[in-house]
Amino acid sequence: MFNLFQNNIIRARLDLVQKTFWVTLKYGFWMLIALSFLLIVIDITTSYWVRDRIYTDINKLPNYRTAVVLGTAKYYTTGAPNLYYKYRIETARDLIKQGKVQQLWVSGDNKTPYYNEPRVMANDLLRQGVQAVQIQQDFAGYRTLDSVIRADKVFRLPPFVVVSQRFHCERAMFIAKTRNIDSVCFVAKYPEGHFKVRIREFFARAGMVLDYILDRQPETLEKGKEVR
Question: 10 Å Cβ neighbour count for 165?
């Protein structure tokens, strides 16, 4: 009798565990669907909302005084060249050469002496024929939000152009538009076959919306100096 009672308890517990598992799986599945739908809505809405600030034809881009070039690493950790970086530098050079802007503001990460995106960008622009007097650097552009807001609040730039790939341009323009910053973005070439970065952008845009809701500001609003 005791063994039968014990077996019934065990069976009841197993049934409860099984039911809990399937209920959790069911709700988890629908939460995943809802989250995916939300990410897609944010992505599409962002692209549509800032479409008037995105330029792909250099001949249609109005003349501006300054272009802010958003930083990224020149090389991947594997040592392979980063084409996102390469195309941004080439696009910035073309804006100068065609007289669309007079000055380039390179903004990137320089938290340690061993990683200096603005310095690397400046050196490569010099090699591309851009004059030193046409290049300024922001060493505290740790994130897209930092680079865009600092250009306006810290360096007091007049209306400016941002340079990056289209997906990045759209996120930068969302930040600018929600903070009443007068800027547009000129699209640099997108490397073919680079799908992983575009997938990560879904989550980056969700973070962008959260930053807006929480009114997050740049890590620093000081002008900052190069870390050597």
Answer: 24
